[in-house]
Amino acid sequence: MNRQNSILLIDPKFDPGTAVHCSLLVSIGMDSFSYAIVNNELKKVVAVYDEQEITDVSKNLGSRIKNDVYLGLSFAEIKIAVCTENHLAVPNELYQNEEPNLYTKFFPAHSSADIYTASHANFGFTSMYSFSKDTDEIINQWFANSKKYQPYSPLLKLAENNTGSSLYIDFTAGSMHVLFVADKNVIFQQCYEIESAEEFNYYILLISNQLSINFDNTQVYITGIIVQEDLHYGCLKKYFKAIHFLDFVDSTLDRQVLEDMPSHYYTTLLALTQCV
Q1: Radius of gyration of the chain (CA)
Q2: Which of 3, 2, 4, 52 is nearest to 28 (CA)?
Q3: How confident is the model at residue 244 (pLDDT cuts 50, 70, 90)?
Q4: Phi and psi at residue 213, to the nearest 5°
Q5: Of the candidates 40, 55, 163, 261, which lies 20 to 30 Å from 17 by C-alpha distance?
Q6: 123 shares a domain with 203
Q7: What's the domain count of the chain?
Q8: Cα(253)–Cα(43) distance, rounded to whole angstroms?
Q9: What backbone phi and psi angles, to 5 degrees, belong to 99?
Q10: Nearest alpha carbon to residue 179 among 201, 149, 197, 157
Q11: 183: helix, coil or strand?
């Protein structure tokens, strides 16, 4: 990262004119903004931008999008994952897609009138979510035809085929998304701000205690902005026996532009390619 806590990696052969054959993948986190451009014809990642430790993502979102020349290109498709506290998991046997207001009254915060859904058939539920009014207006202004997701969508896609007890943690510089799956059932999903290793340790113990997580039998998969030397990793090692860095598993995707970065940094961002 540079002094502005951002990095831009571009394939020197990338021709902006080929954007019509590309997918734009965007992740708007609690304290981060990142995107990747994937050439679908070449099956190649041609650009990645990442900015961490943003004080007010929503406030600065419009100017960031407006001033980035690559975000103004015409893409074949755009997929955006937005961190939001307004999300629910509704069992499919109870889900009524014609009556969204049955569920939105349970959202904890005021939101846009637009309600989005994503089906997770492997886990037997449908996600319902909405974004803040300001964020939704900016996204619809600049990315009118985009597909919109919550950050758990790529994590859930990555967890579809796992059995047993698995804890997934996706890190930014100052927050984490947590997903706990047991016997192919989603038990827990939540986002936390984490300012220190001590606070991270507290949340790990809190989650483990509340969910009765067995340290010996639970596989931990970590991704995002974390390396083995971090205090957060050391904290996990105190409790769990099996910790794995979660890499993106699509071996057909050329990621040479990321060869100097830890391979797990942008796993969930690239996993948006598999979200429908």
Answers
A1: 18
A2: 52
A3: very high
A4: -75, 130
A5: 261
A6: no
A7: 2
A8: 5
A9: -130, 65
A10: 157
A11: coil
